[in-house]
Fold this sequence. Notes:
This protein is mainly beta. The protein is built from 1 helix and 9 strands. 10% of the residues lie in helices and 53% in strands.
Amino acid sequence: MRIGTPALFAVLTFAGAAYAQQPIRDVNDPSRHPVSGSCMMTWGNMGSNACRIYTVPAGKKLAVRDVTFRCYMSNTAEIAYGGIGNGFVEDALVPLQSVPSGNSAQKLKIGARNVFYHQGSDGNGAMLAFASLYHDAQASPSCQAIFHGYLVDAI
């Protein structure tokens, strides 16, 4: 059979049409139910802190696609990373980097990362953001955590 024959063209057209008509599941469509959330953590001095950034509704699953942290602290303190998780498993770690803050007595650390993190509504559905403070802080440090993602029906 030659390549330009009508029979081969019909086979290729039929195969392409069958593939193009495959249904796309809602779980793969991020435009269905977009969500975002943010929360603020503050410290008195040292240690780790967390805040509830979102509660997954019953019967839904949250698909997080990006996480951002912005932390302010004194020059003596250090926050190396932030992350999100369910309180038992800490996933989606985000390394933070120092950037000029415009204030000589204060450090600004930021970090952002594309992630592939899913959390269901099992348990209480709480998704937490967390960060750890190292060294002594001369002022009350704070971190803002922000996420963007979408909700899908739990399967």
